[in-house]
Amino acid sequence: MVTRLEEGIQKRFVTIGSQLEFAVRERLQGNLPGMAAIAGLRQQLNAAMGVIDDFNRDMLRLVEDVKKETYFGIEFDLSPRTLERFSTLELIQALFKKRMQTYSVIRTTADLGEPKRGRY
User: Fold this and answer.
1) How far apart are CA 94 and CA 78, in angstroms?
2) 37 membership: H or E segment, kind and range
3) d(CA 68, CA 117)
4) Which of 23, 63, 83, 114 is the most exposed place for a label (fewest CB within 10 A)?
5) How many angstroms separate the CA atoms of 106 and 92, rounded?
6) Cα–Cα distance for residue pair 59/57, rounded to 1 Å
7) CA distance 67 to 56
Protein backbone atom coordinates (compact mmCIF):
# COMPACT_ATOMS: atom_id res chain seq x y z
CA MET A 1 0.00 0.00 0.00
CA VAL A 2 2.87 2.37 0.76
CA THR A 3 4.42 1.72 -2.64
CA ARG A 4 1.08 2.28 -4.29
CA LEU A 5 0.69 5.58 -2.45
CA GLU A 6 4.23 6.79 -3.15
CA GLU A 7 4.63 5.53 -6.72
CA GLY A 8 1.16 6.13 -8.09
CA ILE A 9 -0.85 8.67 -6.18
CA GLN A 10 1.86 11.00 -4.91
CA LYS A 11 3.63 11.23 -8.29
CA ARG A 12 0.32 11.97 -9.98
CA PHE A 13 -0.40 14.80 -7.54
CA VAL A 14 3.09 16.25 -7.97
CA THR A 15 2.54 16.39 -11.73
CA ILE A 16 -0.92 17.94 -11.41
CA GLY A 17 0.35 20.36 -8.77
CA SER A 18 3.12 21.64 -11.01
CA GLN A 19 0.63 22.15 -13.84
CA LEU A 20 -1.69 24.05 -11.50
CA GLU A 21 1.17 26.23 -10.28
CA PHE A 22 2.09 27.04 -13.88
CA ALA A 23 -1.53 27.95 -14.69
CA VAL A 24 -1.75 30.20 -11.60
CA ARG A 25 1.54 31.94 -12.49
CA GLU A 26 0.27 32.56 -16.00
CA ARG A 27 -3.01 33.93 -14.65
CA LEU A 28 -1.20 36.25 -12.18
CA GLN A 29 0.89 37.60 -15.06
CA GLY A 30 -2.30 38.48 -16.88
CA ASN A 31 -2.30 35.61 -19.39
CA LEU A 32 -5.48 33.57 -19.46
CA PRO A 33 -4.86 29.83 -19.58
CA GLY A 34 -6.52 28.10 -22.51
CA MET A 35 -9.81 26.27 -22.11
CA ALA A 36 -8.12 23.07 -23.24
CA ALA A 37 -5.53 23.40 -20.45
CA ILE A 38 -8.23 23.99 -17.85
CA ALA A 39 -10.28 21.05 -19.14
CA GLY A 40 -7.16 18.85 -19.10
CA LEU A 41 -6.40 19.80 -15.49
CA ARG A 42 -9.98 19.17 -14.46
CA GLN A 43 -9.89 15.75 -16.15
CA GLN A 44 -6.60 14.87 -14.45
CA LEU A 45 -7.95 15.95 -11.05
CA ASN A 46 -11.10 13.85 -11.54
CA ALA A 47 -8.99 10.83 -12.49
CA ALA A 48 -6.77 11.41 -9.44
CA MET A 49 -9.84 11.53 -7.19
CA GLY A 50 -10.96 8.19 -8.61
CA VAL A 51 -7.55 6.69 -7.83
CA ILE A 52 -7.75 8.10 -4.29
CA ASP A 53 -11.23 6.64 -3.79
CA ASP A 54 -9.95 3.22 -4.87
CA PHE A 55 -6.96 3.54 -2.55
CA ASN A 56 -9.18 4.56 0.38
CA ARG A 57 -11.52 1.61 -0.25
CA ASP A 58 -8.62 -0.84 -0.36
CA MET A 59 -7.01 0.70 2.74
CA LEU A 60 -10.29 0.43 4.65
CA ARG A 61 -10.58 -3.25 3.71
CA LEU A 62 -7.02 -3.85 4.87
CA VAL A 63 -7.66 -2.12 8.19
CA GLU A 64 -10.87 -4.10 8.70
CA ASP A 65 -9.06 -7.37 7.96
CA VAL A 66 -6.30 -6.54 10.46
CA LYS A 67 -8.92 -5.53 13.03
CA LYS A 68 -10.75 -8.83 12.51
CA GLU A 69 -7.52 -10.80 12.93
CA THR A 70 -6.60 -8.80 16.04
CA TYR A 71 -9.93 -9.08 17.84
CA PHE A 72 -11.22 -12.45 16.64
CA GLY A 73 -8.02 -14.28 15.70
CA ILE A 74 -7.36 -16.53 12.76
CA GLU A 75 -9.16 -19.83 12.43
CA PHE A 76 -6.97 -22.83 11.64
CA ASP A 77 -8.27 -26.21 10.57
CA LEU A 78 -7.01 -29.13 12.58
CA SER A 79 -4.87 -31.14 10.19
CA PRO A 80 -1.50 -32.89 10.30
CA ARG A 81 0.14 -29.81 8.78
CA THR A 82 -1.16 -27.45 11.48
CA LEU A 83 -0.60 -29.54 14.61
CA GLU A 84 2.31 -27.37 15.77
CA ARG A 85 -0.01 -24.36 16.01
CA PHE A 86 -2.12 -25.95 18.75
CA SER A 87 -1.28 -26.48 22.40
CA THR A 88 -1.45 -29.93 23.94
CA LEU A 89 -4.59 -28.96 25.85
CA GLU A 90 -6.32 -27.84 22.65
CA LEU A 91 -5.40 -31.12 20.94
CA ILE A 92 -6.83 -33.14 23.84
CA GLN A 93 -10.01 -31.06 23.81
CA ALA A 94 -10.34 -31.68 20.06
CA LEU A 95 -10.47 -35.42 20.73
CA PHE A 96 -13.65 -35.01 22.74
CA LYS A 97 -15.39 -32.50 20.50
CA LYS A 98 -18.55 -33.60 18.71
CA ARG A 99 -18.10 -34.05 14.99
CA MET A 100 -21.71 -33.13 14.26
CA GLN A 101 -23.75 -30.44 15.93
CA THR A 102 -27.08 -31.65 17.29
CA TYR A 103 -30.16 -29.65 16.47
CA SER A 104 -32.62 -28.51 19.09
CA VAL A 105 -35.82 -26.57 19.11
CA ILE A 106 -36.14 -23.72 21.56
CA ARG A 107 -39.53 -22.39 22.51
CA THR A 108 -40.71 -20.13 25.26
CA THR A 109 -43.05 -21.49 27.91
CA ALA A 110 -45.87 -19.34 26.50
CA ASP A 111 -45.61 -21.20 23.17
CA LEU A 112 -45.89 -24.64 24.73
CA GLY A 113 -49.52 -24.38 25.91
CA GLU A 114 -51.08 -26.59 28.53
CA PRO A 115 -49.86 -30.13 28.99
CA LYS A 116 -51.97 -32.79 27.32
CA ARG A 117 -53.75 -35.06 29.74
CA GLY A 118 -54.30 -38.60 28.72
CA ARG A 119 -55.95 -41.62 30.33
CA TYR A 120 -53.79 -43.81 32.45
Assistant:
1) 9
2) helix 35-72
3) 53
4) 114
5) 31
6) 5
7) 16
| Structural contact between residues 16 and 48, judged by C-beta atoms closer than 8 angstroms | yes
Which amino acid, 12?
A: R
Asked if 5 and 55 count as a contact pair (C-beta separation under 8 A), the reply is yes
Average pLDDT, the chain: 82
What lies within 8 Å, CB to CB, of 18 at 6+ separation is none
The string of pLDDT tens digits covering residues 62-82 is 999 988 888 887 777 778 888
Question: What confidence category does residue 31 fall into, taking pLDDT thresholds of 50, 70 and 90?
Answer: confident
CA distance 64 to 55: 14
